[in-house]
Amino acid sequence: xxxxxxxxxxxxxxxxxxxxxxxxxxxxxxxxxxxxxxxxxxxxxxxxxxxxxxxxxxxxxxxxxxxxxxxxxxxxxxxxxxxxxxxxxxxxxxxxxxxxxxxxxxxxxxxxxxxxxxxxxxxxxxxxxxxxxxxxxxxxxxxxxxxxxxx
Length: 151
Known about the structure:
Helices cover 44% and strands 21% of the residues. The chain has helices spanning 18-43, 61-65, 68-71, 85-90, 124-148, and strands at 9-14, 55-60, 75-78, 96-100, 104-108, 116-121. Strand 5 and strand 6 form a beta hairpin.
């Protein structure tokens, strides 16, 4: 396995509880694929044998919170504060980009001064809706903000 350079990572974080693993992890992989596609469009394919300049990776909240290098990287937290310790940590640190009362929340600094996001709903179906809304409306500004830090 090649060395992992944390400076190239975009973290997509899910909780370790069984409900988060079963419900939120597949949603995180959906975001990971969209991030990978949009990064390739923004940055091009890396040269043969070279790692990409940025790469998304799905990980647990426990790993993320116990690694200072990862906490310094752009991140998308998937799942509500009850299921994901990173979402719980971010709930009072990030502005709310959109909230639908008793349904879903997307927290994100739209100016991308803070390159972390939290995407969640009140139940699994609402989290699915939040992820789809994030992908359709907020992922491009997120990627643009992250890529801008490379220059």
